[in-house]
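Input.
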Amino acid sequence: MNPLKTRHCDVLIIGAGPAGLAAAVAAAPSGASITVVDDNPAPGGQIWRDGPSVSLPQPAKQLRAALAQHTNITMLSGTRVVATLPHQHLLLEDPHTGWRQGYEKLILCIGARERLLPFPGWTLPGVTGAGGLQALIKGGMPVRGERIVIAGSGPLLLAVAASAQAAGAQVLRVAEQAPLRSVLGFGAGLLRWPTKVLQAAALATPHYRTSSHVVAVQGDGRVESVQLRQSGKTLTLACDRVACGYGLIPNTQLGQALGCALTPDHALQVDLWQTTSLANHFAAGECTGVGGSDKALVEGTLAGLAAVGDFTQAQTYAAQRHRWHTFAHTLRHHFALNSAIQQLPAPDTVVCRCEDVTHGELLKHSNWTEAKLHTRCGMGACQGRICGAAAHFLYGWELPVPRNPLSPARIGTLAGQGAIPE
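Output.
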């Protein structure tokens, strides 16, 4: 097997969401060679995902246009990180080949993923994550005429409801687990961020209920109804689809594999210049703490400038960064998950969907490693990305540092690289 080719760039950016695009555009005037890597077919990340049913917001269009104007930026869509390698190299793979990618500076803009928590019936066809439903609708999945219940926590629920209604679905209920006082407190605090007030007003729906969460989903072969607990009372709604997501959690796996430290909230730790605990490695956006696209844009810009040594210009974004960090803290505080959510799984509720491991089986074990050894929990296709977050929330288990390879890869890519370091 011939060894893989090696490519090199000055600044390597992983992730082409708002943070990654902002970082690339900010760094480009320096003349540095910049490579942006993303596993989606087009730039934009999850929040600006393109599709037949999508009208991209103006900031997304502007950043895409700016990206195309800079000849020193190389955009690699449909490309993923397979493994970390020594001496500031990553093993990358696209649909055609694999290669070693070297860099002088690395900016991690790897976003966040939806927190999916188990409850009876959550594995039925027709149950998705809230963000997952939005992505499917953007991709063109027809939902016209469907009766949909959206549940979980956070402002994303309202955005998903708006997307579903715009696609012709009938949204029966938006069930927010946070109590009314928390939601009202969050709404009152939005006066410090006027653009967020306008967004919230545009997403308002009469079907929104607080102190409400899914208890179970029923159906024979697919969703037929959902049972909700609302302000101490239980009710059942006949429906065709349930979308449930309990907020977002930062994607930190690549950063951890590289050796970057985490904050107590399990996000990548960064300083005022968006530098991680590892020299020459920066991070920006949701992977440093969930706070929305405005926070991601500011952090990405700051990280891009700092990566090319323009600290004078980067300093001018410090106040904006602080402003959106305050918003992120407010968001986490007001939409903290109720302890009742931890009590939802029954003993026979599947927690690890890849390996069909139930809540009752996991309760017999005291930590993640023990559970993996005895039940194969976390050893399926998702490698614990879904059940790991659930286990942390339900049982308080800490997950080990991710190991190479970080994603599935062709045998040719792994063989061409040789031994992958642990």
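The first strand starts at residue 6 and ends at 14.
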